[in-house]
Fold this sequence. Notes:
Number of helices: 13
Strand content: 15-25%
Shape: globular
Order of helices and strands: HEEEEEEHHHHHHHEEEHEHEEHEHEEEH
Mean pLDDT: 97
Structural class: alpha+beta
Largest sheet: 7 strands, antiparallel
Amino acid sequence: MRRLVREVRDLTAGARPWAAGAVVVAGRGPVVAVREAAGWAVRYAAYDAEADAGVELPPAARVPMTVDTPFDLASLTKLFTSVAAVQQIERGTLGIDARVGAYLPDFHAAAAHGLTVRGLLTHTSGLRPELPLYDCADDAERLALLRAEAPVGEPGRYAYSDLNMLLLQHLLERLTGRPLDVLVHEGITRPLGMTSTRFGPCPGAAATEDQRRPWAKADRGMLRGEVHDENAWALGGVAGHAGLFSTAPDLAVFCRTLLSGGSYGPARVLGPDFVDLLLTPPGLGFAVDQPWFMGELSGNGAAGHTGFTGTSLVVDPATDTFLVLLANTVHPRRRPPDSGPRAGAGTRVRRGVR
């Protein structure tokens, strides 16, 4: 574990670090073994395209990373949307193999092609990865695009898509009559005491990207506390695929809840059978046994996810172990993804478990 901490610190060091800053929290059962922060929550004022380097803030103007720094979770949001869906399945108000069109008949393309709730949760619907909702003039145009979007891939074959979670968001909101942020707050974060987990804006969060074309899809400047994902931003910051902000200690509670069968202290958000449904291969929203970001934690049913901004979490029911690694790898700008450090951290944790 000491080596894990050293390696995470090394990831934030130097002129071109893997991330400007990072937080790692890892533990087993009720024990938190590692709780460390390194680097900077805000290091750069902008990105210099000519020099291909960040424009560093003066040391006095930088913001150091702390264990309690909130992060833009990016696609870790999908895990909360998935839990919200499985809560409805547990209550009997949603059928896992029900057709999306039964709940959203006005989403005529999804209805015509027989898309199912399971297909959305397992990314086997055939929907393309995303739509340029950020280029639409208004919400009506965005909704029209989603309603008309038909699958392009072979049904039943895995193809990761943000659109799955956007359709699931609409389905849950139609089914319950409540917006997704309320469902997540009332059904997950409030009962678990995750007071630092919410949809943005989140002014004290770690900075992400100097978001400008051509490397990004919108011209928004240096982002801090505003959702990084362009589609989630266009949708007002609350989306099924992105938009949540959280801290590593809060996510450790989320992980421990899953490892203990859906309960944490006096709170229960899911029954054990439905946690098993979430985490059993191929996973509902969760990726299962993926060594490319889990390292040696994978192989025995470990489940988790990554986020484009540099976030990740893994729960390993076989060893009752969890790992949360949050980093702002897109600060000052996005680069080709590199999950080697995530896998390395997972391997360190697995080797520390007897």
